[in-house]
Write a structure and sequence with these properties.
The chain has 2 domains: 151 residues, no CATH class; 431 residues, Peptidase S8/S53 domain (Rossmann fold, 3-Layer(aba) Sandwich), CATH 3.40.50.200. The N terminus is likely disordered. The strands form 10 sheets. Strands 14, 15, 16, 17, 19, 21, 22 and 25 form an 8-stranded mixed sheet that branches. A 4-stranded antiparallel sheet has the order 4-5-3-9, with helices on one face. It has a 3-stranded antiparallel sheet with strand order 2-6-7, with no helix packed on it. It is an alpha+beta fold. Helix 1 packs across helix 2 and helix 3 packs across helix 12. Strand 26 and strand 27 form a beta hairpin. The N and C termini lie far apart (58 Å). The structure holds 2-acetamido-2-deoxy-beta-D-glucopyranose (7 copies). The site of one 2-acetamido-2-deoxy-beta-D-glucopyranose has 6 residues, from loops.
């Protein structure tokens, strides 16, 4: 303790002394090659404030996982017996000795407990938040962690992040700190949207006759022929056999949509969409939950910028005319997610985290790690929507493995609370969606620069349900449907049988060295992904992407949850063990099409599970019977 007091004394005299006089041996904790497509712009401004999360080991996570396995297995007696907020918190809390060790270390550097916002759960069992008055700026972190935060710019989209390629920690903290982020994490939450076409006249006009109907082989349902060109709410309800269902548990059941970046959903666009496609829902609305400065019109970070005179630094020059305009990703997700499940109450989670600034400005980009912010927020809530869809992701390899695992564990915790999580599987097929070997971009980030298929994260996390894409009626796999095998997460038991069966069907040596045969395979399921008619900034537009598939599939899951809750049963929670036990029952198997990428034709859709469309698209009435039975 004496040494410690001295240490603090020195700290007060001169911070520079600390590193050289540090009593503890430092150990390099992470060191990465500068990631592809990011260029180093130099030192980050030392006065910039950065919220760092220090994640402490969750020594009881295996227990949580065991609970999750049991309560998600429809043949287990504990099926649906979800854990409470308090139970989950106890299972993901760090050990008290770790908390003490970290506090002691930080206090030694003059960072008092009041500057730390300790999250009860989630990703950062201990969060470092700059509180309003006690900000911890970069210069300080540079010294404590003995690295240098630098500005990095993405060569293609111009994003600027403050990151480092390595960091060190005192060796005695080895067992007490799992990771510190955002430091070496260069991923962003990107909307999975391949295309946005504006079209003032409905594409339904392209169709032969608006009264013609298509009978779908397999499920035998009939669908308006216009749905082959343009997808609407009623198209999906017909195609997925849910057009007779009326939600009943609307006081208990909720569906959530998450939004990242500068995206926010627009109420007026939603009303126009409802008038066009869901007349009964006109004048109904949804809740908005703001997390971490998430933006809702007008976005809080913009207010802040106006006040601090940084207004002009917003790339693209937002002005007062478009300050309250919508993002197309958010509009799409909200309109279809809430439209299909209406009148089920909807909640939109707006997580801030990536306003863009010009790099030369003295206050550069925001520096958050998106999923951690959201997880901290949502796991602290008492009531969580039973179904949540996210249409954002990035290449798995851009997320450091330890962080990916930690975030994924956070999703497991949400599953244990009884929430079904759906994520878009990605829009690049097995990688970059490019069949041309000359222009492929599937290179590893690890300094070796090998060609490899690149699965997306968070879809590759085994505790979420990854949703791929289809097109046309009868449905075929859409050629951008993200699929493949995780390089981080091993294949879970519940998936083993289906995936090994698929792998055995591949000709020997297929894509040798390009993918991990033992990895968690995606997607799990799929839904339509092309030409969704939405309203965007007041006008009809058509959008495509697995961004459309995830909220749509989620809406049908919300209706399944409705059916169960209305009968006094629990919500479905983590879906994958159930989905794989059904072995295709309740799904329309998609057996044609493939999703190219990385200079290859990619994998093929085939009978049963495949890494393009998973088990296929939902047959709601059949699934409803099944889930009411378990
Ligand atoms: C088919 O869709 C068109 C365009 O949305 C609509 O005008 C027509 O009434 C629909 N027909 C049937 C039979 O649902
Ligand atoms: C739907 O469109 C696709 C692609 O144009 C076509 O192959 C298919 O035959 C159409 N379906 C019907 C039922 O006309
Ligand atoms: C929706 O609200 C507006 C304004 O209050 C009202 O004029 C309109 O009749 C309402 N529409 C429906 C379908 O309830
Ligand atoms: C905002 O509007 C201006 C012109 O009115 C346009 O140049 C700019 O691209 C818009 N910004 C965004 C983010 O839509
Ligand atoms: C996917 O299909 C679209 C539309 O048919 C086509 O324009 C595109 O080139 C295809 N992409 C690849 C990678 O084959
Ligand atoms: C990786 O390899 C490809 C093809 O060999 C090359 O075009 C690219 O420049 C390399 N990238 C790096 C970062 O070395
Ligand atoms: C996909 O199907 C084509 C045509 O049947 C076949 O040539 C190819 O080997 C298959 N690819 C894979 C990865 O299964």
């Amino acid at each position: 303790m004496l040494a410690h007091t001295l240490f603090r004394f020195f700290a007060a005299l001169s911070v520079a002394v600390i590193t050289s006089a540090s009593p503890s041996v430092l150990k390099l904790r992470q060191s990465i090659a500068p990631p592809r497509n990011w260029i180093d712009l130099g030192r980050a401004p030392s006065t910039h404030v950065i919220p760092l999360r220090i994640a402490l080991p969750q020594h009881r996570f295996l227990e949580l996982e065991q609970h999750l396995v049991e309560i998600s297995d429809p043949f287990h007696e504990r099926y649906g017996d979800h854990l409470s907020k308090e139970e989950v918190e106890a299972l993901i809390a760090p050990h008290a000795t770790s908390v003490d060790a970290v506090h002691e270390w930080l206090t030694g550097h003059g960072i008092q407990q009041e500057s730390c916002d300790r999250s009860s759960a989630a990703i950062g069992s201990l969060c470092m938040y700059p509180l309003h008055r006690r900000k911890i700026c970069l210069a300080r972190w540079n010294r404590i962690l003995t690295f240098e935060f630098r500005l990095w710019k993405h060569t293609q989209d111009g994003d600027v992040l403050i990151r480092t390629t390595e960091y060190s920690l005192p060796a005695h903290l080895d067992d007490h700190v799992e990771l510190i982020q955002p430091t070496t994490a260069f991923h962003r939450a990107k909307g999975q949207r391949t295309s946005l076409h504006f079209s003032p006249t409905p594409a339904a006009a392209l169709s032969p006759s608006s009264d013609a109907m298509i009978t779908v082989p397999g499920s035998g349902v009939t669908v308006n022929a216009t749905c082959n060109a343009t997808i609407t709410v009623s198209c999906l309800k017909q195609l997925y056999n849910a057009d007779r269902y009326i939600p009943r548990a609307t006081t208990k059941n909720t569906i959530g949509i998450t939004g990242y970046l500068e995206q926010f959903a627009n109420f007026e666009d939603l009303q126009k969409f409802y008038a066009d496609q869901v007349p009964n829902a006109v004048n109904t609305s949804f809740d908005v939950a703001l997390t971490n400065g998430g933006c809702y019109p007008p976005p809080p970070f913009l207010f802040e910028m106006i006040i601090t005179g940084l207004w002009n630094f917003y790339e693209g020059g937002l002005n007062s005319q478009n300050i309250s305009q919508a993002g197309e990703e958010a509009d799409l997700d909200v309109q279809f997610g809430f439209g299909i499940s209406s009148p089920t109450p909807g909640r939109y989670f707006s997580t801030g985290g990536r306003p863009q600034f010009t790099p030369d400005a003295n206050t550069p980009t925001d520096t958050n790690e998106p999923y951690s912010n959201w997880l901290d927020f949502i796991l602290a809530q008492k009531n969580i929507p039973q179904t949540i869809s996210t249409s954002y992701g990035d290449d798995e390899q851009t997320v450091p493995k330890d962080l990916a695992r930690r975030v994924c564990n956070g999703f497991a915790a949400l599953g244990a609370r009884g929430t079904s999580l759906l994520f878009s599987s990605g829009d690049g097929g097995v990688g970059d969606g490019n069949a041309d070997p000359a222009s492929q971009t599937c290179f590893t980030n690890d300094g070796k620069n090998q060609t490899k298929f690149l699965p997306g994260f968070p879809a590759s996390c085994p505790y979420v349900t990854a949703v791929g894409g289809t097109v046309h009626i009868p449905e075929v796999a859409v050629n951008f449907s993200g699929g493949g095998f995780s390089n981080y997460f091993p294949r879970p038991d519940w998936q083993h049988r289906a995936v090994t069966k698929y792998l055995k069907s591949l000709p020997k040596g297929t894509y040798a060295g390009l993918f991990n045969h033992n990895g968690r395979a995606i997607p799990d399921v799929s839904a339509q992904a092309v030409n969704f008619r939405i309203f965007f900034r007041g006008h009809p537009a058509h959008v495509s992407g697995t961004s459309a598939s995830s909220p749509s599939f989620a809406a049908f899951v919300a209706l399944l949850n409705d059916a169960r809750i209305a009968e006094g049963k629990s919500s479905l929670g983590f879906l994958n063990p159930l989905i794989y036990k059904l072995e295709g029952e309740g799904f329309n198997d998609i057996t044609t099409g493939n999703a190219p990428g990385c200079g290859t034709p990619g994998f093929n859709a085939t009978t049963g599970w495949d890494p393009v469309t998973g088990w296929g698209t939902p047959n709601f009435e059949k699934l409803k019977e099944i889930v009411l039975d378990c």
